[in-house]
Automatic annotation (TrEMBL), chain A:
Keywords: Cell membrane, Lipoprotein, Membrane, Palmitate, Signal. This is ABC transporter substrate-binding protein. InterPro entries: Bact_solute-bd_prot1 (IPR050490), SBP (IPR006059). Gene3D superfamilies: Periplasmic binding protein-like II. It holds the Pfam family SBP_bac_1.
TrEMBL record, chain B:
Residues 78-294 form the ABC transmembrane type-1 domain. It comes from Streptomyces camelliae. It comes from the Bacteria. CDD domains: TM_PBP2. This is Sugar ABC transporter permease.
Amino acid sequence: MTVDKPSSGPERVSSKRRAALLAGCAATAALTLTACGGGTTGTTTKDGFAQVPQKDGALTVWVDATRVEAAKLYQQQHPHVKLHIVTYDGDANGSNYLQTKVQLFNRTGKGWPDVVFSSQNNEVTWAVEAGFAAPLNKGLIPTATLADFASGANDVCTVDGTAYCLRNDLSQAVLWYNAPLLKKFGYTVPTTWEDYQQLGEKVAKEHPGYLVGDAGDSFTPEIYLWASKCGANHVTGPKAVSVNTSSEACTKMARLMDVLIKNRSMSISGVFSTDFGKNEAAKVLLMPGPAWYGGALFEGTFKTPAKQIAAAPIPQWKGETAPSTGNVGGGTWLLSQHSAHIKAATDFLKWVTTDNAYQGEKAPGFPAYAPAAGTWLKRQDASGYFNGDLSALKAASSQVWPGWGSGQFSQEAIWAATVKPGLTQGKSVVSMLPAWKDSIVKYATSNGYKVSQ
Amino acid sequence: MTLTHSPAGSATRRRRGAARQSRAGMAFVAAYVVLLVAFGVLPTAYAIYFAFTDAGGTVTGFANFVTTAQDFRFLDAVSHVAVYLAFWLLSLVVFVVALALLLHRLASGSASKALRFLYYIPGALAGAASVLVWLFMLDPTVSPVSSLLGALGFHTFGEVIAPGNLPLLFTVIAFWTGAGGWIVVMYGALNNIPADVMEAARIDGAGAWQTAWHVQIPMLRKWIVYMVILAFAGGAQLFVEPQLLSLASVGVAGRDYSLNQLTYDFAFQMNNINGAAAVSVELLVVSVSAAAVFVARSGFFDAD
């Protein structure tokens, strides 16, 4: 992905900050007669950005609840580093907590974390313009290290050729299935979407109640329509997006979903909803979904017993040479330009994204750093939870279709607000494709994107 | 010797006493004024400054107002808030007054105390906590009233929070969290109606309904206006209910349902704090204007 980095960005933020500081000082002085100090004088341009004077002190890292383990492990292995671990929501569900806080810190001139984890892929779309994210490939992270990340993994972090974040994990989608149940029913794993639909129709007739998929989540388009190469969200350049939901690539997948939703072999509940957990979790026969479904969903939320869940390549349309897959999340790590502990922060960032001790041995998601991914897969095999190996995940990591990007506007939010209520009311996906497109165009335009259709 | 009590000395003491009282009053008011200026007037002035300038501090006139009004979500948000306000104010006036009158009829027994306590409880819960309670109540899978929801045709959370149901849901949540306190206030106001007025009504042969309609409700008028003014201002700023419902439904309820959510989105999603300030100023103008109309029409500040 390439996103815009306005040339006036840093200057604008800086002048805004000064204005805010002055206004803040005036207001505060009137009340408390305390003077405002601070400022960013004495910066040194190094590693591609103006660094504030470096000093000793605790390194502040912001992580979500899942990544606390990573920070604690780093602390264990580096007892000499003073680490201040702050837990926040990791911007889950697009909460924008980080962006909100950074905007406030930009105004107050202090408070930024040194390193921060986010579960969102589109943080650099604002974090670069806000003068928060530091460039990483201008001296901080060695080129050789960056080259070892999975192909395309750091595209979401790259703005005009400069990497502003490192990918924590990949979320390539595969076809998860319950191996003993599939065998018991006498079915085979479908390799094409046509076979997948046929199987769904069979399941509806022969084993009603069992599911071949779920279309109830806000990331449904990322699983199905992205895999079908639907050009609904093609970020074509800085602040430019191409939106087309009426192509055959989109409509054939929408038709497939409509057939399976109608015969109820595809749920519209959403895998994390209470009703899915209560009524449908035990009825999952197949489930296209991201890499993290294995541990987080099946083992964690559904408590599916061991030796049942297996992963196969996501189906492809007949006539295609290889599957294309979508991407459902995957976290990123950012380093603050305002850090006064850049050496320590860089060391933490490098360790947390590449070291086997965390990414290979502990991380719940498929590591974006390829050498750690090998260790991670071995660990999954050794855990004994999955039925068979997870090599499908490795193959899928390089099959993410590049025609879908991470813009500043949230595709998930748009789908959830536009299409999901219609599904609940019994409308077909096909019938809602124009409304979906209309909504994407409106949100993209509102966020300053040039939209081509 | 007997000290004589001179009228002049007495007057001096009275003046001194009055001066002391006046100083004490001034001190109390001054503390309030300082807080009002710090946390009310200054932020408002700052928001107005933001609304008429751009990110660089250049005065832009009404540009921020035009930009935000042209956003495709603006009119939707206005209509959502308008529909919600209609539901909310109507239900508040009708049910709060009715329940307060009912409570007053039961004034003698211990039932009244119990009911006043019950009415008060929801208001004691913080706004966000109350909404979370409702999220639990509205999910048929876990709700203690799931059979009732089922009877109404709702079997999943998605069905409950369908867009068409939202004004009603927000009204129910807001009523549950905010109306109890007003019922207790109205009850207090009913207690202040002189006993001889009620007695006169009774002697004149007025029944419960006639007493309520012709005596009590007219005498509650100022309190009702007061309630409507505050409820209007609060309702126009609808935020917590849709925001939490949006999070709980992972976006189905829409995170730009209300004007205040749109403000939040402008500020923290689209990095347009000046646009956000413009919408906030519009809300302020609408609320103050509505309050002015209510006050002028009701004679709120007229001396009795």
